[in-house]
Amino acid sequence: MNILRNTVACASLLVAMSVNAQTTTLYAQNFNSPATTACPDWGGAGSASSLSTDYNGAGQTGSATFSQIGTADRVCWGSPGLNTDPEGTATPYSGGFARNGSVVESWAIAFDPQGKPFINGQLDLAHITPGNLNGIATPLTNYPGTASSVPMALRFFRIPAGSSFNLAAGASTAVGTPANPANVMIAGVAQTPLPESGMVAVTKDGSYSRYAADWNVHQFSVDTSSFGVGDQLAIVGTVIDNLTYIVFDNLVITAASAPVQPPSISKHFGAPQVNPGQSTTLTIDITGNGINSVNGLTVTDNLPAPVVVGNGGVIANSCGGTLAATAGSNQIQLTNGVLPAAGCQLQVEVQWPMAAVAQCSGSAVTNTIVDGTDFTVGATTTAGTNAQATLACPAPPAPPVASVNCTPKTLVDAAGQSAVCAITLNVSQPADLTINLQPPTASPRYQSTCLNTIVIPAGATSATCTITATANTEPSDGDVTATIAIVDSASSPTPSYVVGTRSDSVLIGNDDVPLPPSTPSPVPSLHVLALLALSLALAGLGVFRVRSHQD
């Protein structure tokens, strides 16, 4: 971390403490005036024996009790050309401690919170490779210092009034495995660490310089509201990884007059429901303690199936650290975040995939971030309330019902004989809808405009095709039937229509009737002629007699 930035941050915090009537500085030590200033005495018992005095030496505010395991050191930055302590003072001194194999060093201070219900702490830390410190020309090879981040245990213990304490190493572990943090012992009994205890990450810049300290400001908060008069709070630091050296500086402890609100987390989606393939914004809000920033913010959000991160990924992050949100993933993760006093916010685009349309039922899925598991803020006690939000995908509307009806049902094989077949929907659709058909079988007796598909335009409820009889005068070609049918829609992902009246038929009848056979006129026979002559003779005789009487 940049020295100037650390200096400004530290100065700003001290100014804030002096003007804020609700805070009190309980302890502050920058180690710039150690009891022993001989730099060649760094490391080992020579300087370790003076650290207790250093913790209560010149330039400090308040008092504290010191304890250690191993030989926690006074580090002297021995060359003006080297990166010095965070303030860059003319007397560059820091504290230091390490792990080398089975030797695990630890330090502790204990102070009285003076009846304050809540304390806040700040500590500068750096992971280094000792070299050219205190005039040593050759870097120490037993502390390679090439890891970009190493863990340090930071634990808190309550020391009852009138009790004295000492440190005891944690249970031994094999070299190459993480060490166990040191314990506070009172009268031979190991004490239980307070819930704010945990690990902090001490980082080193990518250059792994043997001659510089990449300082990081680590902040912590502890609830001391249950402490009695004269009780002390012990702060214990332990190096965890093998062959690791950590330096520390600028320890500042302040107290709040009233307990601050513990950090909490909440979340919500930008819309209560989305359609398949649509996205919305997931917002995660984290409240701060209102007094100071706290390192070590982590958030893991496992999205409920089928919700995934959208193509937009991360929209906003005011929590620092690294926010991972890969498109198509079902996990959002923030690591190494910093929670400001006023809180911070994460925003990520999430989507209900089109491929999950079958899971759209209108019922919501619940998204939960578990406080204490998915949400932690370093060693700080959080509110203990899970963050939940729900997102739904509405059930798709029922597909329209497609039916077919032909009018008229009967034609004859004469000119101008046509039937209209209407493919209808029970409800119009917002887009063109293609209906699959089984058209009439080809026949010379009719022509059809009904093909394999027909399109019902958007907003309409029908489309038509025709069956037209072929005119002829053939009396013996009989009747034929033209049948049209609707074929089912594909069902993936959902059918675009269902079938009502599936088929209809049109009869083309034969109207050509054959003529009856012709009958020849009969030729009169001789008998008929004789009868005719007799009739004429009788008629003539009758006329003659009538005239005779008249005469």
TrEMBL record:
Residue ranges of domain DUF7933 in the record: 263-359
Sorted UniProt keywords: Membrane, Signal, Transmembrane, Transmembrane helix
InterPro entries: DUF7933
Top-level taxon in the UniProt lineage: Bacteria
Signal peptide segment: 1-21
A Pfam family hit: DUF7933
Protein's recorded name: DUF7933 domain-containing protein
Ranges that cross the membrane: 526-546
